[in-house]
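Cast an eye over this sequence plus tokens and explain the fold to me:
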Amino acid sequence: MKRVLLCAVLLAWSGMASAVVYKWIDAQGKLQYGDTPPDGVQAEVVYLPGSHAAAAPAPSSKPPLTVQAGNPKIAQDKEAIAQDVGATKQKECAEAQSAYQKLIEGRRIYKTDDNGQRVYLSSQEIDAQRLSAKQAVDDACSADTP
């Protein structure tokens, strides 16, 4: 009897666990997914397998925000976004430089295989890794990339 009751509770809970997923295009033109779309964007509901379309709430019907010249709130938001982007870019640049430096200074470079064993790279593989890491540094640290 306990098993039947447990099965019934688990089945009921699994029906409630299905969530609504929205997709939208952000300000940078990238496709984003989430459980709640940001205000002012055109979002559409993504119907996942096993989800109930009738139970999905409608996306936000608020009109898109219009940018007004001289609006201090928008100027502050843009400045905060620019600072966040700059900080993220600096972090990515530092990580790429660190990885590149390890490849340059390393004597015996290895990767770990599926069994957790070290597999040492050949000279050609190390050179390829170094070139790839240098390209990552150039991409992450270039001034013209947003």
